[in-house]
Amino acid sequence: MAKDYYKTLGVEKNASPEEIKKAFRQLARKWHPDANPNNKAESEQKFKEISEAYEVLSDENKRKVYDQTGQVNFGSNGNEGFKWQDFSHFNDFSDIFDDIFRNFGGGGSFRSGYGGRDTRQLDLSLSLSISMAESYRGAKKEVRYKRTIDCPNCNGKGFEGNDVKTCPTCNGTGQERVVQQSGIFRMVNVITCRTCNGRGYVGSTKCHVCHGSGKKTEVETRTIDIPAGISDNTQFVIRGIGDQEGGQTGDLYVLVNVREESGYRRSNYDLIVEKEVAFPDVALGKDESVNIFGEDIKFKIPAGTQPGEAIRLRNLGFPHTRGTGKGDLLVRIKVVVPKKLNSTQREIIEKLSEELNTKHSWFGK
Ligand SMILES: [Zn+2]
Ligand SMILES: [Zn+2]
């Protein structure tokens, strides 16, 4: 074996993919050239070696070939070997870079220089309108949205095959300089090379599926679980289903609007409804029921309930979206006065009035 990749990463021959990844991450942090400003030459060499080892051992097929033959050819010109810029397709590189970033305070050009992307740029958002009943009970809602993903044919590279050459625009650095003129000021920005998308190399055969863009747009249909209790204007995030680029995937932000529904009002986690009742019902008390989004809920009106008073039914409000428990259902009592009376009713009420006004005060004084 020309090179012992296992030894390079310090793992056993039968190491699991997780162990290999872990070993690589540790070494990559240690040996990244930006983390070793005083020792650039050696760290570059080391970084190149561990990257090459990881490129092979992290790929099931390449690892198999390597285990059997002791070597793996890269590209059509295998003698050229591994290019150390050539790792933009490693999914986990960006977070390794993030770590290095945090630890060593590198500049923004670093990420773009190595094909890393700010995944925030890959985030998508959509808004969703639900009924109050759906927010009360929770719902499953189907959403459709457009997302851009890496072309599956070329893995987002834009070219097919292994015939690659150093990018003529950036000479392999993955970065290009753009000059912006703003009034009398000239600003030079370093951005991700647009020719090679930060890879540092380009292929000679354009991908026949994406025609070189490396991208594919698809319409995604997803069923989203709306948790019960969600209130109007709430945003939540579903990780990993946004746009995809260079193997990284953004998130989907869903803004939920709850439509108003006549007869129902929400206050924090409480649900407030109104119930119309006749005077004798509040005076004498009564078993009643109230319809909550299609379901009858029974409750008792205690004798002597006052107009406008709210009867609190515990734990029948909106479920808490954080933690457990529910708000309450408040049934506000509206006493309805009849607009017309027949003779019998009139007689009875006159009697009642007389009784209340003479023997006892109406107000109980
Ligand atoms: Zn380039
Ligand atoms: Zn393609």
Automatic annotation (TrEMBL):
<feature type="repeat" description="CXXCXGXG motif">
    <location>
        <begin position="207"/>
        <end position="214"/>
    </location>
</feature>
<feature type="binding site">
    <location>
        <position position="151"/>
    </location>
    <ligand>
        <name>Zn(2+) 1</name>
    </ligand>
</feature>
<feature type="domain" description="CR-type">
    <location>
        <begin position="138"/>
        <end position="219"/>
    </location>
</feature>
<feature type="binding site">
    <location>
        <position position="167"/>
    </location>
    <ligand>
        <name>Zn(2+) 2</name>
    </ligand>
</feature>
<dbReference type="Pfam" id="PF00684">
    <property type="entry name" value="DnaJ_CXXCXGXG"/>
</dbReference>
<keyword id="KW-0479">Metal-binding</keyword>
<comment type="similarity">
    <text>Belongs to the DnaJ family.</text>
</comment>
<comment type="function">
    <text>Participates actively in the response to hyperosmotic and heat shock by preventing the aggregation of stress-denatured proteins and by disaggregating proteins, also in an autonomous, DnaK-independent fashion. Unfolded proteins bind initially to DnaJ; upon interaction with the DnaJ-bound protein, DnaK hydrolyzes its bound ATP, resulting in the formation of a stable complex. GrpE releases ADP from DnaK; ATP binding to DnaK triggers the release of the substrate protein, thus completing the reaction cycle.</text>
</comment>
<dbReference type="InterPro" id="IPR002939">
    <property type="entry name" value="DnaJ_C"/>
</dbReference>
<dbReference type="InterPro" id="IPR001623">
    <property type="entry name" value="DnaJ_domain"/>
</dbReference>
<dbReference type="GO" id="GO:0009408">
    <property type="term" value="P:response to heat"/>
</dbReference>
<keyword id="KW-0862">Zinc</keyword>
<dbReference type="InterPro" id="IPR001305">
    <property type="entry name" value="HSP_DnaJ_Cys-rich_dom"/>
</dbReference>
<comment type="subunit">
    <text>Homodimer.</text>
</comment>
<dbReference type="GO" id="GO:0006260">
    <property type="term" value="P:DNA replication"/>
</dbReference>
<keyword id="KW-0677">Repeat</keyword>
<feature type="binding site">
    <location>
        <position position="196"/>
    </location>
    <ligand>
        <name>Zn(2+) 2</name>
    </ligand>
</feature>
<feature type="binding site">
    <location>
        <position position="193"/>
    </location>
    <ligand>
        <name>Zn(2+) 2</name>
    </ligand>
</feature>
<feature type="zinc finger region" description="CR-type">
    <location>
        <begin position="138"/>
        <end position="219"/>
    </location>
</feature>
<feature type="binding site">
    <location>
        <position position="207"/>
    </location>
    <ligand>
        <name>Zn(2+) 1</name>
    </ligand>
</feature>
<dbReference type="GO" id="GO:0005524">
    <property type="term" value="F:ATP binding"/>
</dbReference>
<feature type="repeat" description="CXXCXGXG motif">
    <location>
        <begin position="193"/>
        <end position="200"/>
    </location>
</feature>
<feature type="repeat" description="CXXCXGXG motif">
    <location>
        <begin position="151"/>
        <end position="158"/>
    </location>
</feature>
<dbReference type="InterPro" id="IPR036410">
    <property type="entry name" value="HSP_DnaJ_Cys-rich_dom_sf"/>
</dbReference>
<dbReference type="InterPro" id="IPR036869">
    <property type="entry name" value="J_dom_sf"/>
</dbReference>
<dbReference type="GO" id="GO:0051082">
    <property type="term" value="F:unfolded protein binding"/>
</dbReference>
<dbReference type="InterPro" id="IPR018253">
    <property type="entry name" value="DnaJ_domain_CS"/>
</dbReference>
<feature type="binding site">
    <location>
        <position position="170"/>
    </location>
    <ligand>
        <name>Zn(2+) 2</name>
    </ligand>
</feature>
<dbReference type="InterPro" id="IPR008971">
    <property type="entry name" value="HSP40/DnaJ_pept-bd"/>
</dbReference>
<dbReference type="Pfam" id="PF01556">
    <property type="entry name" value="DnaJ_C"/>
</dbReference>
<feature type="domain" description="J">
    <location>
        <begin position="4"/>
        <end position="70"/>
    </location>
</feature>
<keyword id="KW-0863">Zinc-finger</keyword>
<dbReference type="InterPro" id="IPR012724">
    <property type="entry name" value="DnaJ"/>
</dbReference>
<feature type="repeat" description="CXXCXGXG motif">
    <location>
        <begin position="167"/>
        <end position="174"/>
    </location>
</feature>
<keyword id="KW-0235">DNA replication</keyword>
<dbReference type="GO" id="GO:0008270">
    <property type="term" value="F:zinc ion binding"/>
</dbReference>
<feature type="binding site">
    <location>
        <position position="154"/>
    </location>
    <ligand>
        <name>Zn(2+) 1</name>
    </ligand>
</feature>
<keyword id="KW-0346">Stress response</keyword>
<keyword id="KW-0963">Cytoplasm</keyword>
<feature type="binding site">
    <location>
        <position position="210"/>
    </location>
    <ligand>
        <name>Zn(2+) 1</name>
    </ligand>
</feature>
<dbReference type="Pfam" id="PF00226">
    <property type="entry name" value="DnaJ"/>
</dbReference>
<dbReference type="GO" id="GO:0042026">
    <property type="term" value="P:protein refolding"/>
</dbReference>
